Structures are given as structure tokens and as C-alpha cells.
């Protein structure tokens, strides 16, 4: 029996974002540190000496916006922080249903941050807010895993911490596997988070609020273990934003004014050491507020989820991979990103970048890897599919 090798093409679902991510590519400027005029820090923060200046130079505006101005989701002035996520899998819905309504009412995320293969993992949530995602992931990592949420806003942390015992009981755990830390996502060391200590970092609609995205990414890289992953949803603009938009307080608070042009994320991520970002999903944001739309003009925004890995630089060697189907909740197929979906037992040719990610991360155990042209069965690991005698035809598409 001859099995063809599947090569996949890019497909971005739920939006016209495929155009968004290609038509607007143009060379980017060298720096991206946006300080809205009316919320200027007292000293210019170039990202190099964050720890020296400390919180005194931080923006206080998001703290007031998420701590005082907004009481619940219904107070938001646009739908940027309510952007529809992709359909929610049943096991995630089940986990969400167990979360206390007060926590859920203060959820301001713009995507679904549920990476696969979570059992026993140590997670960090950047800008955890009232803790909805932490409590959802607390169930998915299981009692042996752990989730830490970090946020700068005391009012949000208060709600999150209030329900630690409630959820521990609700999930049937002997002791909590969640904790919440007050701190800045640009200063993880100062918040007491150790280098090389997390398997996965998630974040939901927060990085756009930071005036120093490079520092957020470099700190995340530092606290991730080798092979670790930053999996995060955020708002991106179709091109670099004008000063008028960046300086508008409400647009900043609504997660639009601080949005990165997506091309700058790709550049910054690699500059701090990550693998090139892999786009998972993207949804166009319809702002639905005429006053804000008038200021935004023809800028477009998407809520997008990217996955960035801390893995060795790519080898550029394509590889044949077979998914073994053993990841909980993904018994039939694994939708890795917008480009690659791996069906169980199917041979897929991946590019060198993805081969490096899969073979140097927690996914290494879940795949069999073979150089192109090598007959199945001679792979590095023996997949379930080896029970059949298969021959791989590398050039069949
Ligand atoms: C749009 S809300 C999202 C909250 C949460 N991720 C959720 O999905 O509900 C943004 C959160 O990020 C926090 N935040 C913004 N900038 C931050 C920073 N520089 N350091 C720490 N937290 C920050 C705010 O306090 C707020 O709780």
C-alpha cells in the first residue's frame, strides 16, 4: 500500500484575514515603543533598563481602565476585547462552565488561548485579569500542573484571588494549582518569576496594552524553558498606527491604540530569539462604535492567535512527520496552526521551521519523524501506524 505525503497550504479561517496578512507586508521601522502623549511615563523607557526604572515609569492608564472604569464586559466601548474566538471545543466549554460568574463577567479576552498537550505543564498567563483563563487552564493542566497569573491591576487580582479556594473545591483538587502575582509583564524577574521555569506562556488581549512589546517578548523568552511556547491572542493592525490613534486614551484602553502591526510582531519575536511566529487563527474586528471608527479611518484590526517557540534555530530541512493521536482532546487530528493540520497516522511533509518546533518542544513525543524518502518504519520513533507496512512516496502531493 502506498501512502501519499500531504503538503498543506495556508488557510486562515473565520475572516478575510488571509489578505490582511499578505497585502500589507512592507518593510518595518526599527523601533516600536509607543507612548501615548497623555499617558507618558516620567522617563523614556527604551526597554534596556526596565528593572532600573521599575514601575514608576509604567503606564497607569490600563490600570484605571481595567480596575475602575470597566466594571464588567458590558462597559467596553468597542468589541475589540470581545472579538469572537473560533468555535470552542466541548472539553474547553466544560471547563469554562465551572468558573465563577464574577470571574467570567470581568473577562476581557479577544481569543481562545488553549494550546494542546497541557497535562502536568507549568503555565504563566501574562495579564491574567480576573483569572478566567487561569481557572480554565488549571483544569486542563490537571492537579500536577500549575498556572500562575500575573497582572498589574490590584482590583482585577482581588477578584481572581477571591475564588482560588472556590475553584480548588469545584475542580476536586486537594490543594490549589493556581496563584496570582502582582507585577508587570515587562518586568517578570522583578515579579519573582525565575528564568527557564515555565513550559508554556499564554496571554489574552494584553500585549497591545504594553508600551514596550520588545521587553514583554524578551522577558517571556527568558522565563520559558527550552522547548517552551508562547501561545497568545492579541489585536493587530493592518499597518503601523498613526500618532492620533496611538495617543487616543479610549482606543488604547480598548486594545486598539496599542495594537502592533502584525509584521512588527514577526520581526520582534525573532529578534528576541523565538522561532518565526506561527499564525493559528485570525478574526476581523468590527469596532461597532461610530465615534471610534471615525478616528480609525481605513485601518483594519484583527484578533489573532500566534504560537512562538523557544527552540534551536531552524535547520531548514523538511521532514516527514506522523501524528500519533495521543494528545488528550485531539484523538483524530491536531490543528497545529493555520497551515498544518495533522491527522492521526497520516504522513505529512513539514518545512524545516515546523520540523524544528515539533522535534524540540513538548510535541516531540507525539510525532514520528522521518527524513523525506525514507521508508516508514525507519523513523526516529515507531509510530502506531508502523503496524501497517507502508511505503512513503515523498513526491506525491
Ligand atoms: C484586556 S484585559 C485582559 C485580561 C485577561 N487576559 C482576560 O482575558 O480577561 C488586560 C489586562 O492586562 C493587564 N495589563 C495591562 N498592561 C499590563 C502590564 N504592563 N503588566 C501587567 N498587566 C497588564 C490589565 O491590568 C488587565 O487586567
From TrEMBL:
| Top EC group | transferase
EC numbers listed for it are 2.1.1.137
Coiled-coil region(s): none
What family does this belong to?
A: Belongs to the methyltransferase superfamily. Arsenite methyltransferase family.
The record lists the membrane-crossing segments as: none
The protein's matches in Gene3D superfamilies, at most eight in alphabetical order, are given as: 3.40.5.100, Vaccinia Virus protein VP39
- What species was this sequence derived from? Oncorhynchus kisutch
Q: Which reaction does it catalyse?
A: arsenic triglutathione + [thioredoxin]-dithiol + S-adenosyl-L-methionine + 2 H2O = methylarsonous acid + [thioredoxin]-disulfide + 3 glutathione + S-adenosyl-L-homocysteine + H(+); arsenic triglutathione + 3 [thioredoxin]-dithiol + 3 S-adenosyl-L-methionine = trimethylarsine + 3 [thioredoxin]-disulfide + 3 glutathione + 3 S-adenosyl-L-homocysteine + 3 H(+); arsenic triglutathione + 2 [thioredoxin]-dithiol + 2 S-adenosyl-L-methionine + H2O = dimethylarsinous acid + 2 [thioredoxin]-disulfide + 3 glutathione + 2 S-adenosyl-L-homocysteine + 2 H(+)
Pfam families linked to this entry: Methyltransf_31
Task: Return the protein name.
Answer: Arsenite methyltransferase
From what superkingdom does this record's organism come? Eukaryota
Amino acid at each position: 500500500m502506498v501512502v501519499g505525503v500531504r503538503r498543506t497550504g495556508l488557510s486562515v479561517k473565520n475572516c478575510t484575514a488571509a489578505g490582511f496578512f499578505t497585502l500589507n507586508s512592507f518593510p518595518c521601522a526599527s523601533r516600536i515603543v509607543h507612548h501615548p502623549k497623555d499617558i507618558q511615563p516620567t522617563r523614556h523607557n527604551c526597554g534596556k533598563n526596565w528593572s532600573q526604572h521599575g514601575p514608576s515609569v509604567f503606564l497607569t492608564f490600563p490600570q484605571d481602565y481595567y480596575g475602575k472604569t470597566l466594571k464588567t464586559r458590558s462597559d467596553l466601548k468597542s468589541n475589540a476585547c470581545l472579538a469572537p474566538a473560533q468555535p470552542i471545543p466541548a472539553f474547553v466549554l466544560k471547563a469554562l462552565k465551572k468558573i465563577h460568574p464574577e470571574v467570567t463577567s470581568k473577562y476581557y479576552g479577544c481569543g481562545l488561548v488553549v494550546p494542546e498537550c497541557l497535562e502536568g505543564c507549568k503555565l504563566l498567563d501574562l495579564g491574567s485579569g480576573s483569572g478566567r483563563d487561569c481557572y480554565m487552564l488549571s483544569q486542563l493542566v490537571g492537579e500536577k500542573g500549575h498556572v500562575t497569573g500575573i497582572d498589574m491591576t490590584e482590583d482585577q487580582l482581588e477578584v481572581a484571588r477571591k475564588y482560588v479556594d472556590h475553584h480548588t473545591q469545584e475542580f476536586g483538587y486537594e490543594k490549589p494549582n493556581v496563584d496570582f502575582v502582582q507585577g508587570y509583564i515587562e518586568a517578570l524577574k522583578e515579579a519573582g518569576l525565575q528564568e527557564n521555569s515555565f513550559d508554556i506562556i499564554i496571554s489574552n488581549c494584553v500585549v497591545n496594552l504594553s508600551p514596550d512589546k520588545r521587553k514583554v517578548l524578551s522577558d517571556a523568552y527568558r522565563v520559558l524553558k527550552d522547548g517552551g511556547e508562547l501561545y497568545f491572542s492579541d489585536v493587530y493592525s493592518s499597518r503601523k498606527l498613526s500618532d492620533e490613534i496611538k495617543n487616543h486614551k479610549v482606543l488604547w484602553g480598548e486594545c486598539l491604540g496599542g495594537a502592533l502591526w502584525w509584521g512588527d510582531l514577526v520581526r520582534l519575536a525573532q529578534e528576541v530569539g523565538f522561532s518565526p511566529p506561527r499564525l493559528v487563527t485570525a478574526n476581523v474586528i468590527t469596532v461597532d462604535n461610530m465615534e471610534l471608527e471615525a478616528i480609525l479611518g481605513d485601518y483594519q484590526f484583527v484578533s489573532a492567535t500566534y504560537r512562538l517557540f523557544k527552540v534551536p534555530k531552524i535547520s531548514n530541512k523538511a521532514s516527514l512527520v506522523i501524528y500519533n493521536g495521543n494528545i488528550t482532546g485531539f484523538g483524530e487530528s491536531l490543528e497545529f496552526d493555520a497551515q498544518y493540520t495533522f491527522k492521526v497516522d497520516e504522513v505529512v511533509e513539514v518545512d524545516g521551521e515546523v520540523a524544528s518546533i515539533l522535534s524540540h518542544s513538548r510535541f516531540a513525543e507525539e510525532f514520528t519523524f522521518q527524513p523525506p524518502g525514507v521508508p516508514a518504519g525507519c523513523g526516529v520513533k515507531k509510530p502506531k501506524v508502523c503496524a501497517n507496512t507502508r511505503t512513503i512516496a515523498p513526491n506525491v502531493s
